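Researcher: Sit down with what I've pasted below and flag anything odd:
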Amino acid sequence: MAIAASYAAKAFGIKTGTLVRDARQMCPDVIAVQANHRRYTEYHERILKAVDTCLPVEKVCSIDEMACRLMGTERQMPVARELEFKLKRALRDQVGECLTCSIGIAPNVFLGKVASDMQKPDGLVVITAADLPEILLGLELQEIYGIGTRMEQRLHRAGILTVAELWNATPLRLRRVWGGINGVLFHQMLHGVDIQRRPRAFRKASAISMCWSRTCAPKRARMILRSICSPRRPSGSGAAITIAAG
């Protein structure tokens, strides 16, 4: 089974979860590369270090995605865009020319993730409060972060078929669709509210991220301890910048 696909492979319909035999039927010339988790972890650490030379990494979302917080003058668009180009240069110089990244700037990490997915590869998208909801209305439901096939089906059953209808849905309606408070939180994040994690939840997420492999645990632990012990940026107002490989 494919755990990832290049853009060239995606053009043939190959994606994460595609069986190798099916991939060969879609593209007879496809080349299957054996996974190398130790090398992935090594590059993950290099990416973190490169990004940290430009901005403190606030949240590691996955092995190839992270979020940073923009504060003060960094929130001014000319400064924010210069930081984006600085991040791209740092990744190119410190990790490798073949690795590109897509960057999204938005009022919160949720919309930053949506923005980073809107222009790939090597994209750079900014979503401001003034852009909402128009910039989202051309997207499909599954292009909104957190909505997969099953959630889309639940939204359809609730009569929500488009992003416009999702935007206009009340918090109570989304609470019913999600079956709990997560629907209300989703509504707030979609509308640009910057919801801060509680410290305990952040520590739990950090602990989970240390469990990718035994070989990287000590190095990763030291990085997390440095981030916890060093002076932290104040939480509250601030734009988020999300960086994803691709």
